[in-house]
């Protein structure tokens, strides 16, 4: 058996592969596009929706609303500025917080019942 007999079939297989690779090029480009689309719908879009809802909640804040901050402090809104909100956490104790620190608005009367 000639040692070149093992090389010839390999050479034929290598020349046949580029003809099939033209269809593989489409699937190679299609995979990252599908991956980006999945990432958009599973991660980016829900985060943008949450940000939009949070912004709308902050715009609706009014004096007397009961809120919880990102630090877990619960209180009642007593003053609203452009960038800061004053929250009363106990009688006579007010905290000045950034608007973004408010994470949720509680139903009226929640703090009194707690």
TrEMBL record:
It is a single-pass membrane protein. The chain crosses the membrane at residues 20-42. Keywords: Cell membrane, Membrane, Protein transport, Translocation, Transmembrane, Transmembrane helix, Transport. It holds the Pfam family YajC. Its main location: membrane. InterPro entries: Preprotein_translocase_YajC. It is found in: Cell membrane. Belongs to the YajC family. This is Sec translocon accessory complex subunit YajC.
